[in-house]
Amino acid sequence: MQRILGLFCVLICFFATINAQVDFYRPLVPIHCNSVQKCPEEWPCCSPYGECGSGPVCMGGCNPRFSYNETSCAPMPALVPPNNIEYSSAPLSALDGKEDAAQLESRGLLHFNKYLISDVQSDARYMLENIAFTYSGPTSIHPQTGDIVLSMPRGSSGCLLAATRYFLYGRSSVRMRTGRSRGVISSVVIMSAVGDEIDFEFLGSELYQVQSTYYYRGELIYNKMLEVPVSSDTNANYHDYEIDWNEHRIHWLVDGRIVRTLYKEDTWDEELGIYKYPQTPMRLEVALWPGGLASNHPGTIEWAGGLIDWDNSPDMIESGKFTAHIKSMTVVPYTNRYISAINRCMRREHNIAYDYIMPPDGIFDEASFAIYCGLIPNIRKWSDSGFSIPRNPIQAARWSGKVFMSGKAFTPVNTETDFVQNINDLASLPNGTMIYNKTQENTFSTEQKSSGASTMAQNNPLRKIKGLASTFWVS
Ligand SMILES: *[C@@H]1O[C@H](CO)[C@@H](O)[C@H](O)[C@H]1NC(C)=O
Ligand SMILES: *[C@@H]1O[C@H](CO)[C@@H](O)[C@H](O)[C@H]1NC(C)=O
Ligand SMILES: *[C@@H]1O[C@H](CO)[C@@H](O)[C@H](O)[C@H]1NC(C)=O
Hints:
This is GH16 domain-containing protein. Residues 1-20 form the signal peptide. The protein folds into three domains: 2-76, no CATH class; 78-333, Jelly Rolls (Sandwich), CATH 2.60.120.200; 339-436, no CATH class. 43% of the residues are buried. Strands 4, 7, 8, 10, 15, 16, 17 and 21 form an eight-stranded antiparallel sheet that branches. Helices cover 17% and strands 28% of the residues. The N and C termini lie far apart (63 Å). The protein is an alpha+beta fold. The protein has helices spanning 2-21, 56-59, 100-106, 121-130, 298-303, 314-319, 339-346, 393-399, 453-456, 461-468; strands spanning 45-46, 52-53, 76-77, 85-88, 109-111, 133-136, 139-141, 148-153, 159-163, 170-177, 184-192, 197-203, 209-215, 226-229, 239-245, 249-254, 257-263, 268-269, 274-275, 282-290, 321-333, 352-356, 369-373, 403-404, 419-420, 434-437, 442-445. The structure holds 2-acetamido-2-deoxy-beta-D-glucopyranose (3 copies).
């Protein structure tokens, strides 16, 4: 008996070790990515935590600045008006007894390492159209309340819930009860792949307030944080937390009341001549995580209120885990500079994706995006990256009113597509016209060309537009 038990343990421990170390989309020894070091070709995608990987790492939160090249990250499914994301809890009934994963999937939640990874096109389409959130960590549906429960058992790294669709301006609302006790952090944030972030962070040791903050391009400047009071214990009571973000300002709201406002004009950086204002597509993320983990940076532990007490905290004694409970979530996207192209696409297609393109100055802003109409940005397997997703100029041309190109053959795919062969004709095109430069393999919109109109006809006009225009690009 002793021996069998022993063998059993060896096998279990062996597989547990294998599983922990080799998950096939991350290297055995972590490879780090940052502003001075991009990911290598074998592990091309840079995660939000600065680690290289492939497959799922290329799908959500993949940072295009630090990834191997421009095509490593997959295009991001877009949330555009009039669509929104809504999760609202209802008690489980029909699903009683089913596994957590099945219950979660029936409510539009899927583990992040499965999302949009399939070589069956209909499965990929199903995921794109039915999965609103991905999760990692021990996530479940509460059988009585129907809340999404994020759990953090002893020694774990908690849970992350992330919306699958990105929006460029919009309002996100979360009704929840936060985790409690020292070192336990709950967050409601909207975050972009390049590190723009607007946050609510809850310390489990301070249950009558919340920290509001924001980041620009991942710059770790901590003096933007502002503490905001909440009317009652955030662990014992549900409250509404909302982030209302448009191109001019951000409102943080608690229970429907604006508790903080940030104006874009107040974020001007004199030296760089740019607004350090979040202006890249965001996704909603709700997390429960161990800020007070012994292995964390001392500054993080201190901020989190100290080390987590895994033995004596009330939740550990009662249920062996810390939890946060999400009652409902809503994301309503606002209009943005791409709206005319989006509307044209929406007449026949609901699957729209945003894709980062590298601007000449290397500084991403709200104009640094391609829009694909009708693209299902799936990959076949964990070893693939966004490179295997066909980003075809034709797809861009499908929604464009007109196409400009520099004299080379280009097959039209619908009757709305015209060609302009002469650069001088550019000035006569209506706003929102897409321009495709075959030589440069670039596409541009004339949407914002007003200020550039006079300079446009001068030498290398297309490059000039690039800085100003809503830029639609296919590579
Ligand atoms: C990007 O990387 C892929 C391999 O991952 C390569 O085949 C492709 O040519 C690269 N593209 C550019 C523009 O460098
Ligand atoms: C298209 O791009 C090429 C390469 O940058 C450039 O030389 C050319 O002028 C552009 N075409 C037009 C019509 O401007
Ligand atoms: C194009 O848009 C700009 C502002 O974005 C505006 O000033 C201009 O009048 C518009 N042109 C046309 C033809 O609509």
